[in-house]
Amino acid sequence: MEKGDSYAIVDLNICDKDSEKADSPDTLKKIPLTTVIKIQRDRGERDYIGFATLPEQVHRKSVKRGFDFTLMVVGESGLGKSTLINSLFLGDLYKNRKISDVQDRIEKTTTIEKKTMEIEERGVKLRLTIVDTPGFGDAINCEDSWRVCSAYVDEQFRQYFTDESGLNRRHMQDNRVHCCLYFVPPWAHSLRQVDLEMMRRLHRKVNIVVVIAKADSLTAAEVKRLKTRILNDLDEYQIQVYQFPECDSDEDEEFKQQDRELKAAAPFAVVASDTVLEIGGKRVRGRQYPWGIVDVENPRHSDFTKLRTMLISTHMQDLKDVTQDVHYENFRAQCISQISQHAMRERGKLKRDSMGNNTDVVFTDTDRLLLQKDEEGYRGIRHSTYARHVNSNATKTESFR
Ligand code: GDP
């Protein structure tokens, strides 16, 4: 089919004469078939139906509605999380932050702090929520750190599931976590136990994007080595961080090149700054050192621009789509499975009670069908999760299940 051709999908009720059963007139059945009929149109005014404006209608509606995006930042305090968020979204989200002292940090458990800001750019509104996890990894025992983060992600899914199943779905708010920026310290040699534990708990619930913090403290060779080790660890421990989707073949060469560079740069080694400096008459966000200036946006100094491009300009919608289609679907399938298993147990109990001493539970065909459907649905979604995240690799498939 040529680009620009018009075609229609039509539901037809036709007799399926070719099927095996069609031999006998008794079994001749009307089977609805969906047939794609290609309608070639000259593009003159006369033949214009009007559905070509559908993308504009969708665009107008989405702009009016605005967009939601929730970003979770995870990493020890002092790694530059707040500075990076301020640099990414050109705001000052952490003006009144209280830094906890050593004693506090030993005793304190990880908490969740949510900050929301509404940003508008060229008429497009974005409701951005930053979920910070102060105290993460600060205490001697880090076990509660991942527990708190994981419970928060689950809770947002649960809330969305409840809202979705409720009567009034018009004003539902999407607070699900669409992306988790996981900060690895620059002094680490590779992923540490706490990083692996945390990612293991989160990788099937949220899109993890790994960043190496304060990359200005590393030489180019050290950055390269740390990136390689992190990638090896992710592979070895089978942690599925966010996978960039394949670039469409009809994209222009410039976009394809940008996409290749983004993929090659992960995990992103970033430098952040709250300070705006003047370099050669140009105002830039940077860090001033006795020996020179690190320009945060200079791709030779750090991957900050690549991270910002990916997170905001090119992959924000994909992060939301994967959250909806993969992570939330997984959660939803598990919920439905639990609900129907509970209902079946209850029905079984009722039947046992009504049958007196006969304790054998009799499953009806409907019960069996329900169980089978649960199983299939759950397996199907797990499979699609896997397919979206990993290139087919037989050994990994086994361990994922
Ligand atoms: P948070 O506790 O993780 O939110 O860390 P902050 O954003 O408060 O940063 C802690 C300190 O690190 C501050 O003094 C920042 O100026 C500094 N900092 C932030 N980003 C960077 C960076 O990329 N490189 C360096 N060298 N220092 C940074």
Automatic annotation (TrEMBL):
GO BP, one annotated term: cell division
One Pfam family named in its UniProt record: Septin
One annotated GO molecular function: GTP binding
Keywords, alphabetical: Cell cycle, Cell division, Cytoplasm, GTP-binding, Nucleotide-binding
Compartments where found: Cytoplasm
Keyword Metal-binding on entry: no
One Gene Ontology term, aspect cellular component: cytoplasm
Signal peptide as annotated in the record: none
Septin-type G domain residues: 65-338
InterPro entries given in the database record: G_SEPTIN_dom, P-loop_NTPase, Septin
Family that this chain belongs to: Belongs to the TRAFAC class TrmE-Era-EngA-EngB-Septin-like GTPase superfamily. Septin GTPase family.
Protein name as it appears in the record: Septin
Source organism per UniProt: Bicyclus anynana (Squinting bush brown butterfly)
Lineage of the organism: Eukaryota, Metazoa, Ecdysozoa, Arthropoda, Hexapoda
Gene: LOC112046214
